[in-house]
Design goal:
about 350 residues; mainly beta; Immunoglobulin-like; OB fold (Dihydrolipoamide Acetyltransferase, E2P); 3 domains; six-stranded mixed β-sheet; five-stranded antiparallel β-sheet; 28 strands; about 45% strand; globular; YhcR_N; DUF4493; DUF4493 domain-containing protein
Length: about 350
């Protein structure tokens, strides 16, 4: 039985190689699949949080024979769909582009204790050639675990709901389990007086395991997020604190929403001030800062992915005097709404120029 162990350090990247077919030329090509054997990979102990997910002990084994394999062409036509163990040794196809997906289970709507493992690749098959595809096993969805502080429970008596583009689930306050989602935006919703209120919106990425402690403090100046990151091969385990008392004004765009509005002027955009001194490849997240001409905002105070951040221009005058981090280091972590023009390139990424107004929340 083929078995693949997770909690491993990946030593090889997915690859595809083409070789001439030994048989006579037929005008067709072949796809040959293989999984990286566990014996060639270095194992590592998982973080303690994994036991909270209740899907295994310190080493969790997956039977890859039961994995679900699907292969579709560029038109969406099914070439193969079934168990990995029942696949043909060689899959004969016409020249073209094919999507290969290997999943440990069927997954769509949010579910508790349901980490999804596998791989997804797009391969190009040429005439009379064989494509050897090496699949790796990694986490494809994201896990979210909520912890409720006393201040949160006093303000919000009942359970919250978590909702993404595929469905929603009620999150009992008594559970310590992770709920899993496909990568994308997740909203936390609370129903009160027959009306739904979105308490938080968060974008999750594949392989992320986020444990979020929810607080409620109307007196908190900033929504400070305490961050602890543990790296487990291809997965990122995060602990954060989120203040649900923070209210974002209606009609204000998130950074993710603003990305689709490039070229538009006078847009209101919400983010947290996380640093400055930007270049096309780097940013500074702690003082001292050298440049007063801009700062950087992000969806959360813990965000460090440059693609998810906006550099905001601070024009000379009142706005620069009041917001530059050279003088105002205390603005780090501040939730802010800025008004300006979204441009396609500012320090190498989508950003905001001609900032004309701001509101600290």
């Amino acid at each position: 039985m083929e078995r693949f162990f997770i909690f491993i350090a990946i030593l090889a990247m997915p690859l595809s190689s083409c070789n001439m077919l030994p048989e006579e030329e037929t005008g067709e090509g072949k796809i040959v699949l293989d999984l990286q054997p566990a014996e060639s990979l270095t194992r590592s102990e998982p973080p303690q949080e994994w036991t909270d997910v209740r899907v295994g002990n310190t080493m969790y084994a997956l039977d890859t024979n039961s994995f679900l394999l699907s292969i579709h062409d560029s038109d969406g036509q099914k070439i193969y769909s079934g168990k990995y163990s029942e696949r043909p040794e060689e899959i004969i196809v016409s020249p073209g582009t094919y999507d290969v997906k290997l999943h440990s289970m069927e997954f769509g709507k949010p579910r508790f204790n349901a980490p999804l493992f596998g791989d997804e690749q797009t391969v190009i098959v040429e005439k009379n050639k064989t494509v050897n595809v090496t699949l790796l096993c990694r986490q494809l969805n994201a896990g979210l675990c909520l912890e409720f502080s006393e201040s949160f429970n006093k303000r919000y008596i009942y359970a919250v709901r978590l909702k993404d583009g595929y469905g929603e689930v009620s999150y009992p306050k008594s559970t310590k389990d992770y709920c899993f989602f496909l990568p994308g935006e997740v909203k936390m919703i609370y129903k009160e007086n027959n009306a739904d209120t979105v308490l938080m919106t968060r974008t999750l990425v594949a392989g992320e395991m986020l444990r979020l402690t929810l607080t409620y403090s109307e007196n908190s100046m900033y929504n400070v997020s305490n961050l602890n990151i543990n790296i487990d091969t291809s997965r990122v385990w995060r602990d954060e604190i989120y203040n649900t008392a923070l209210k974002i004004p209606e009609g204000v765009l998130s950074i993710e929403e603003a990305k689709s509005r490039v070229g538009e002027k006078d847009l209101s955009i919400f983010g947290f001030v996380i640093g400055g001194d930007a270049t096309e490849k780097t940013m500074r997240i702690a003082p001292p800062f050298a440049s007063a001409t801009h700062f950087i905002i992000a969806p959360s105070t813990s965000e460090r992915n440059r693609n998810n951040c906006f550099v905001v221009e601070l024009p000379s005058g009142k706005i620069r005097d009041e917001l530059n981090l050279v003088v105002h280091r205390d603005l780090l972590g501040a939730p802010i709404v800025i008004v300006g023009d979204v441009v396609d390139s500012y320090y190498g990424y989508i950003g905001v120029k001609k900032t004309q107004d701001y509101t600290l929340l």
